[in-house]
Amino acid sequence: NLIFLILLICLLEYSLHLLIPSPVPTELHLPRPHLSVLPGHEVIAGADVMFRCSSTHPSTSCYLYLEGQIRAQLLSRERGDYNLSHVQNGDSGRYSCQCYTINASREWSAVSNTLDLVPRISLGCPLALCVPLDPLLSPREGWDLPVGGSPVTVPCVPADYTLCNAVRLALAAALLLLMLLMLLGPLTVGAARSHCWRSRC
């Protein structure tokens, strides 16, 4: 019975060893790659971007990781690039890459630097009259506004505010005239009635 118990314990240990995967090797022999993105980490929504994972070690392939995602994207072996077309808000996040050698041993590198991809929505001037009529006029730098938890880039109008200011002045004058009519109207009607009453008397 004792021999049978020992054999049973050994069999259980061997079965558990087969079921439990071996730990991931922590030795990273390759140099750390460098991750870059073109044209930049802040782009207009709908634009195309290209991630590039650069490694100094030859004959390597690289994976592109997005923080929070389980799946990784295998980059091109030739240049280590990955093109992302029509960037949307769902593509935003923190990216990194990691490379490995293309051989039987498969040596890994450390994880690269991280890049935060931020797609932005481009909005024009709220007033159509404030938009310059001359398409050659280039707007100045824009400012960012948080809309629905996402940053939105709103470009400023050019320095020529003539048309916009003229419209505002006209609206202000019309509003002022309307207020004067509303205030002076009852007084004028009352004065006319009083004059008519005195004439009859």
Automatic annotation (TrEMBL):
The keyword rRNA processing does not apply. GO terms for biological process: immune response-regulating signaling pathway. Keywords: Disulfide bond, Immunoglobulin domain, Membrane, Signal, Transmembrane, Transmembrane helix. Gene3D superfamilies: Immunoglobulins. InterPro entries: Ig-like_dom, Ig-like_dom_sf, Ig-like_fold, Ig-like_Receptors_ImmuneReg. The keyword Coiled coil does not apply. Residues 1-17 form the signal peptide. Residues 33-116 form the Ig-like domain. The chain crosses the membrane at residues 169-192. PANTHER family: MHC CLASS I NK CELL RECEPTOR, OSTEOCLAST-ASSOCIATED IMMUNOGLOBULIN-LIKE RECEPTOR. This is Ig-like domain-containing protein. It comes from Cyanistes caeruleus (Eurasian blue tit). The lineage of its organism: Eukaryota, Metazoa, Chordata, Craniata, Vertebrata.
